[in-house]
Amino acid sequence: MPGSGQQSVTGVTAVEDSNSYWSVRGTSESVCQRGEPVKCGQTIRLTHVNTGRNLHSHYFSSPLSSNQEVSAFGEEGEGDSLDEWTVLCGGVLWVREENVRFRHTATEGLLSVTGEQYGRPIHGQREVHAMPQANLHNYWKAMEGVFMKPSETLGRDAAAHTEL
Length: 164
Known about the structure:
This protein is an all-beta fold. It is 0% helix and 30% strand.
């Protein structure tokens, strides 16, 4: 457990890791509509698919590198303002397979991984933390994902199912 006592967030180099999926969500201030592209500069929450906890940060020191701790916080996607990250990318929209950075909205730390590895019980997993300066350690790419078709509002006379 990290210094805050919250769940650690780690990274792995394996290409296929079913525990590395995150869902992009809106914040309490802004809605992120399903299926709508994410804009560069937009503030989002990232919710871990398997645990339902949000990517979170605060001013605790990370256990291995002594950078700013990043943890998983909340239940079923509910958390607080320390779960909010700003998407930093080069164009208008966040595009899969292009470099992106995530700046923690409250502390301005950049989501990073520098290579420090844990021993037991999570041997070989790398510490994810936040750093104040932009560098090669805080570039990320969305390599996989599922596009969700935007919700459609049915008219009051429309049938919910048209098949038999």
